[in-house]
Amino acid sequence: MTIRVYLVRPDGTRVQVSACFSDEEEVLPLVSALNWPACACLRCTVDTD
């Protein structure tokens, strides 16, 4: 399994800033983004109505 972290520039280009490699046969299942709890920070929870 390979995990890569990219920085996205304003022009849309990506620059790889980190990478992690694993040869383990037993890897935890990936969790869908739909299963993550909603963000509770002030920026995300402020009502804009």
Summarize the structure.
The chain has one helix spanning 42-45; strands spanning 2-8, 14-21. It is mainly β.
Task: Please write out the topology.
Layout: E1 2-8, E2 14-21, H1 42-45
Antiparallel strand pairs: 1-2
Task: Describe this entry's structure for a reader.
By secondary structure, the protein is mainly beta. Helices cover 8% and strands 31% of the residues. The protein contains one helix and two strands, in the order ββα. The longest helix is centred in the last third of the chain and has 4 residues, at 42-45. The protein has one helix at residues 42-45; strands at 2-8, 14-21.
What are the defining features of this structure?
2 strands; 49 residues; single chain; two-stranded antiparallel ribbon; 1 helix; mainly beta
Write the element-wise H/E pattern from the N-terminal end onward: EEH
Structural class: mainly beta
The biggest sheet amounts to: 2 strands, antiparallel
Radius of gyration, CA atoms, in whole angstroms: 16 Å
- Could you say which overall geometry the principal axes of the C-alpha atoms support? flat
End-to-end separation in angstroms reads 43 Å
The main sheet orders its strands as: 1-2
**How many helices does DSSP assign?**
1
Mean pLDDT score = 75
- The amount of beta strand, in percent, is 25-35%
How many DSSP E strands? 2
Range of helix content: under 10%
Q: Which stretches are low in confidence, meaning pLDDT under 50 for 5 or more residues running?
A: none
